[in-house]
């Protein structure tokens, strides 16, 4: 029977996956509302990376969690600029970053399992 900690980690990971997938779809769908330029193609490419990371978040490894946190952290600096208009993608990236950081900082196994493991 899985412990409550493992179930919580799994649910947080699935929430991060849904948020990353939503961010990716929104960034790719932005192509239909903007004129085709180098900046809009780069934004859509970033959306594709978010979609691929969402696929990785369905697994159990920590690399996709770290890469998702890194990608959200990089765009967090954009929020500090003076003329930045807040978009839905920016709002979704903040909880994604917090969830991924929490998953990275939490131990992989509960404390009682760590003492009994070789």
* Domain unit count: 1
Helix content: over 70%
Q: Outline, from the CA principal axes?
A: elongated
What is the oligomeric state here?
single chain
Question: What order do the helices and strands come in, and which of them pair?
Answer:
Elements: H1 4-29, H2 38-57, H3 63-76, H4 88-105, H5 111-116
Helix pairs in contact: 1-2, 1-4, 2-3, 3-4
Keywords for this entry:
71% helix, mainly alpha, elongated, 118 residues
Please characterize this protein's 3D structure.
The protein has 5 helices and no strands. The relative contact order is 0.15. It is mainly α and 118 residues long.
Write a compact overview of the structure shown:
The protein has one domain.
């Amino acid at each position: 029977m899985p412990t409550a900690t493992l179930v919580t980690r799994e649910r947080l990971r699935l929430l991060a996956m849904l948020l990353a997938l939503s961010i990716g779809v929104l960034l790719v769908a932005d192509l239909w509302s903007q004129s085709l330029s180098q900046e809009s193609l780069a934004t859509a490419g970033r959306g594709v990376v978010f979609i691929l990371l969402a696929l990785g978040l369905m697994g159990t490894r920590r690399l996709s969690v770290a890469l998702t946190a890194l990608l959200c952290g990089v765009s967090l600096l954009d929020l500090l600029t003076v003329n930045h208009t807040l978009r839905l993608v920016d709002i979704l990236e903040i909880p994604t970053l917090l969830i991924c950081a929490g998953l990275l900082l939490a131990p992989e196994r509960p404390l009682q399992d760590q003492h009994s493991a070789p």
